[in-house]
Amino acid sequence: MKNLTFSTDKNILSVDVDCYQKGLSVTCVIAGFHERSPRVLLTKFSDSAKWMLPTSLVMKTESPEDAAYRVLKVHNGLQGVNLQQFRLFGDSGRLTSCEINTILNLHGVETIESAKRLVTLGYYALADMSKVVLNADPNMETRWFSLKELPTLFGDDRHIAKAAFTEIRKYGYNRPIERDILPDYFTIDELKNLYEMVFQKDLDARNFERKVLSKGYILKSKGNSDIGKARLFYFNQKNFERRADVIFWY
């Protein structure tokens, strides 16, 4: 996995209001795992007291998915992540009028009279936290937070973040989450710890390695870890593609 870089610009877009779909946005949950705790990447602008998930209005010339990738690249500087759409959030009271105006102003839009309600499509991405590089920016602070210790957030961002992790657990039953989060080479203990963090349950260490190797896409490498000389493993993409019917939960 390539390193994920981070940079910011307070006005992520400054274009005419007619460029945007009225009342439609995207919100991105960047998820990581550290010390047996789910983590989420949040941002806070210098003139705001609240933290927020990366978000953007959707332009008329792009799809919501394109908008989600754009907000990560332009607003957050993140590249090389795999986004998954998971839910539409459209409660009429999900944002206050002040919060809506803040989002509009971040796009260089002073006001939209009809924008009394802002619907958002939720996307999530799994990231190896050690490869997310947070560059210093005077206008916006960026930080990882534990899902259990979130600060004061915009609107329903807390609800969106928790809903994303619920979907990630479902995703783990059908997709190999280690491919997106772990380094290229990892130990069995690191893989086991990851799944225990995601599913919040202990796994049987005696059977775990046997089950892992039976999948056919986790292979032994020729090297060992520097810590304790444990055997290293890696994810084999070609073998994974041959096992389209496999259940990935161990």
Kindly describe this structure.
It comes from Dysgonomonas capnocytophagoides. Residues 181-225 form the NrtR DNA-binding winged helix domain. With 250 residues, the protein is α+β, with helices and mostly antiparallel strands. The protein folds into two domains: 20-172, Alpha-Beta Complex (Nucleoside Triphosphate Pyrophosphohydrolase), CATH 3.90.79.10; 177-242, Winged helix-like DNA-binding domain superfamily/Winged helix DNA-binding domain (Arc Repressor Mutant, subunit A, Orthogonal Bundle). It contains seven helices and eleven strands. β2 (20-34) and β3 form a beta hairpin. The two termini are 23 Å apart.
- Structural class estimated from helices and strands: alpha+beta
Number of helices: 7
Helix content: 25-40%
- Shape, per Cα inertia axes: elongated
Quaternary structure: single chain
Overall domain count: 2
* N-to-C span: 23 Å
Number of E strands? 11
Condensed summary:
The chain has 250 residues and is an alpha+beta fold. The protein contains seven helices and eleven strands.
Which characteristics define this entry?
250 residues, 29% helix, alpha+beta, three-stranded antiparallel β-sheet, disordered N terminus, Arc Repressor Mutant, subunit A, Nucleoside Triphosphate Pyrophosphohydrolase
